[in-house]
Amino acid sequence: MKLRNKYVAIWGVIASLLFLTSALPTAYGLDFPMSTHIDVDPTASSLPAPDAPPLTAAALYGSIDLAATPLGSVLSSDIALVSSLSRQVEMARTIVGAKIVAKTILAQEYGMNSSQFSCLNNLWTTESHWNYKAHNYRSGAHGIAQALPAEKMNVIADDWRTNPVTQIRWGLRYITARYNTPCGAWSHFKRARYY
Fold this sequence. Notes:
Blueprint: H1 2-22, H2 57-62, H3 70-92, H4 95-110, H5 114-128, H6 164-178, H7 182-192
Helix pairs in contact: 3-4, 4-5, 4-6, 5-7
């Protein structure tokens, strides 16, 4: 029975990976890995025992709880992560949602408070009105943070044209590297009209 459960778990993971890789590679602006490595115990028999009863779909899917196996719990957490990230991307496609995502990233990943977000809000409202589709045809600046040239955002991900979270992450990285804080960037912008 243990061997059968092992095969069911392995084939369940393989089927899930095939499903994920057959989905659009950038569904909701997320990139799925296109190669997968699965470790298989080389000492295990690759075929079921000759006297083992044939496996039916009910036996395959009803005989194991993937969430209870270590392999299944990893798969479940990966699916939950992808679901959470896709919800974040969809939420950030709106002005209010983009502000919530930026404020959360600013607080959780950069340890900055709401006064820093206030400066960021002033800056990006002036630059793009938090519109991830904003594009300056004269300069070529693009997105919420108005990256110039826009291709700079490739350092975060190559979905920068359509993914507002990529744009937010790039903008925060740029601001902290160049001005230390959003308030530093806002101060510079008020003097020079760019940041």
